[in-house]
User: Fold these one by one.
Assistant:
Number 1:
Amino acid sequence: MEELETPRVAPRTASRRGWDFALLVLAVALLGGLGIQSLAGTLYSWWATRTVESWATSPAFAFYIQVMNAIAAPMVIALAIVMGLCIPKRLFSRGALAAASGIMVLFGLGSWAATGSPTTGLAVYLLGAAGVQVSVVVMTIAGASSLRFLAEGRVAKVGSALLHLGFLVFGYVVVALQKDAWMLPVFWVGFVLAIGGSALTFYAGGVTRALSGGR
Amino acid sequence: MTAALPDMAIIDSTVASLRAFGGPLGITALVASLALCLASWIPGASAWRRRALWAAAAVLLLGEGLLVWFHVRLYELAAVVDPSTGTVTGHVAVPVWVESEKLFVWALVLAVMMCAARRHAPELASVGSVLLLLLVAGAVLAGRPFTDPLPDFLAQYTGYLRGMAVGGQAAAQAFQGMEGSRLYFYDTWYMWVHPPLLFLSYGAFTMSFAAAVQAAMQRRSAFEETAYRWARFGYLPLTAGMLLGFPWAILAWTGESWWWSGKVNMSIMMWLLYTAYLHLRLHLRKRGMWRWVLALAFLSFFALVLTYVTTYLVPGAHSVA
């Protein structure tokens, strides 16, 4: 493999990239953790259906669902927090970022405490993160120069902001709207944002060329 | 039995026609894939590789055309009649990517992508031809879409016809099951969008895996770039397909615990791994990072294969085990 040369960067930029990388490693670890849980759940299902009679309708199945939810919940919440940290870092300095994230987490915890429902707490946190992301999208489209993105180019920036917003909206649908009349309309908003944003991010160069008439 | 319902003999003769033409076609597809493999790997035979690839793709396309004919014929025959009113509620539109046809569709998508590939086409074909041969062999020998077509659907529909012939409670129960499958499984628009998107992604991820193997073997970053390009192309339909599965599951599996079922678990794991791969690749320029990126590329494809196999091994919602 041709090792690509590591570019020389200013200390402040290097520090920011180190922070970005740390968040990325954390996100990958959480994604991997959820993946391992999914694999373990599948293997357990496979084993249980062969050893426990009528497992799918037995109390053991309800216990399995309960355990899977309990294991996944902290990782999903941590992933949402990491996403939250990734989102406002484009708007704030690291100190302000930590404060904003802390406030959003506190709002989530407060909602959990007030309602007694962790689901409500997570929903409130996702709404807050989505609200911040909407402002990122607006500022990006307006061309704010202060935004910090890993990906270069206006189209990639807009795409990245839109896709993160899309997944936050989808997360909100899963957490809070599954049995609500608004489930489908809100789902479609999240779907269009996530897929459209991904396409813009992945094919930013082509879109930019198309927008500039092939130049 | 009402006149709108077909005679079983007509369905049997349609299946017999499919077997008569499809049996040899399946063997031809297997031979064509083997020829492509040989042309890709035997020194001096590379001049035939391109022709062998197009030939294999043409045979697979022909086979798909035959399956389309079979499904259109089935649609014309497979009416569903409400025994309480005697009216036809609809016809069952069985798509060409269910049951025994899945591997065949995956193979077809891969063959078309191999034909369309411009970047590193010969190198992708060398690994891709082996994967194509495995898929075609699996389709023809295990799936058997031409010789043992749609076993579950035909069993359900013939059961429905038998129930309708008996009448009374048996007819009512048979109708309830068949109409439920028609409305929430076969004829719903989700069925016509969700699986094709996933098979499109499966094809692209197979191409990505082929390029990743070349990157690991030849240690050239250009192949890693090719692997990434195919992976990002596959990630879009994968994400779209999986997202669309969510409202479909809520509609079709009301009251069922499907979220932590085996196939759903594995699908989530596969998506998480490909998401992790695409994220980690943002830092490819870090020293030694390519090893981790390639490892995740291999792990993600392994998860994809496991996800497919889980359908047949682990019982639960979204499973035929």
Number 2:
Amino acid sequence: MSLLSVHDLTLTIHGTPILSSVSFDIAPGETFGLVGESGSGKSMTALAVMGLLPHGAATTGTAEFLGQDLLQLPERALTRLRGNEIGMIFQEPMTALNPMKRIGDQVAETLLIHRAAARHDARDMAREKLARVGLPEDRFPLSLYPHELSGGQRQRVAIAMAIALRPKLLIADEPTTALDVTTQAQILDLLNHLTREEEMALLLITHDLAVVAGRTTHTAVMQHGRIVEQGETEPLFRARRHDYTRRLFAASDHRPARNPQTRPEPLLTVENATRDYLLPRPSPFAPHPVLRAVDGVSLTIRKGESLGLVGESGCGKSTLTRAILGLDPLQSGAIRLDGAEVTAGHTMPRSLRARMQVVFQDPYGSFNPRHRVGRLVAEPFHLTGTPRDAEDRVAGALEEVGLQASDRLKYIHEFSGGQRQRIAIARALIIRPDLIVLDEAVSALDVRVRAQILDLLATLQQSHGLSYLFISHDLSVVRAITDRVMVMQSGKIVEEGATEMVFASPRHPYTEKLIAATPRIPAEWKEAAHAD
Amino acid sequence: MRLPLILGLVLSAAALIAAAVSLVWTPYDVTALAIAEKLKPPSAAHWLGTDHFGRDIGSMLMAGAQTSIAVALVAVGIGMGLGVPLGLFAAARRGSLADEVIMRGNDLIFAFPSLVIAILITAVFGPSALNAILAIGIFNIPVFARVTRGGALSLWTLDFIRAAEVAGKGRARISAEHILPNIANLLIVQGTIQFSLGILAEAGLSYVGLGAQPPTASWGRMLAEAQTMVTLAPHVAIFPGLAIVFTVLGLNLLGDGLRDHLDPRLRRAA
């Protein structure tokens, strides 16, 4: 007897087909993974089950939950179910909580809305639920506000709210995508632990095959609004019957073919870089506390080399990057590019700036939406002066990254995330720099797009003799594209070495922790692929 | 183009054309009194009737549009011309002493309602349309400075600004090239709101006798003069009131429509 039985669910929004004949069953207490790329319809499936579809949505089929068809229930009945029998947590812990309310009140509110507790009991129950998700009373009083918590702690509060009424089904939509690897591992462990303890079923939605592997009993793979394959997780992973599953699988640990041509002479040297930030005064006349974001970091990038910089959010990666790019000054230490000193602001000569470019993480925030692609890509010509053949150079750069010359007349919103990252790379390449800083450049992309971008980066490095500084919290990507890697923790470099050496035998405990926390598909599952 | 934009264009254009035509021609002379004709309801000779001096209300509305639009336009111009650069500068130097000084100065102006500033100015310089413009314009500066700074601050955190910095562009250039076009929609909407508020403020100032002085026609003063005769001859109050309502409505629709029309994202999607 299944808890949730979705049968032949078809969804259109304003006539556009979104889902077609989606069917799956979740048994009580089961963990069910729904895997697919962005736009595959996995979130829409969850929203359909929750009755939270946008306006203009029309569904056919059934979604039976405890003998009731969720698709036919009136809104009043659904509100009784939501939060009560079905809990849900979302991707973005920053926006899932009300910033104006204390965490205790937010958890208690869920209880009060469903009249599960009297007002004075609700606080005690909220305290107990927060303790259950790993936020004990002594360190995390109920009076904290969301902004006083980290991303992972906020996600814990969201989970506490979702499980407050002991729902029979918990829907987690990309619950860890916005989190660091070690936090991700903790949250996933917590979810697994809770499903066991509370006998609750879990529908885990993710784009990452490795997250599902080893954590769910059943898995369904979605593409273009259809479930292309589903079954028990391990056999499904081992067999990979559907072509799309195979492609996802191949992309998830794709390594571009690289032929590193590192020359011995250094391109960029950073010596003892230190940068402090003043924090707000704790009381009106107290001195500013100081946060040392970068603490005596030294590094060298050789010509043609690809160096990885790994660390979790808040470790000082971004501050170091800004200093290397000459955007922020250092307190002490020196940065040299081919012998010339990198200084911040106007004092840095344009010819020096022109030798470094950057690609950012967010494919949506990286471009001025008001300009056409041609103008966006040509922006770095500000450093070199616009050459006479600027138009051709822009067209050439676009073709080099796999787009068309005619794309320069379009606006940025006409492109997908992967195409935007290609445009960002074209912009970085246009003035033929020596060093490109890739700041989480593939972190926001789907696995298959990520694999393509990594291939592109490898090809370009070879053809242009580029050096890369590859900054990421995703270890598998760093492993695929770098020659050497450095691990950063709390502003310090804790480990450094050839990439394969560091990954194969990490010496520092922090590196070990990072590697252990990285979700991966068990090696033996990969080998056993069918030959048919 | 969508319906609100067209409607906004039509209403705003009507006010503008009325004002422009009144420069060279009005059906009747707006300064000529004809007491015998006073308080006539709408008729074939006087489409909108006459006021208590027998002046043609239609003619006065046309001439009054001139005053209202000129006052509001110049006042918005003053507000935008000074407020937007101040806001951009404050955002580019966010957190600095200059930012603090500019924004606290704005708070100071904000602390006084425009009517109070107007009374202050007219008490010193005497009532006139020019002083009304100055008073409304000064009050507009902090409005635009705040909107500009707020919009600009959120943009300064985005990666495309970082990319421009990496391309070696200075703060002034980034402000002009990247920030301003992306807050243009905010400014257009705020501009039309302030424009309509300007018309209302001018009407308010004229109503209390601090704006345009007789015999210059003004919608606000027409309302003020009509208020004692509302029960006797309602049309004397209704028509200036409608003129204000439709012009303000038209400007607001125009602002919203323009914002959508100028955004490449919304334009292509339409």
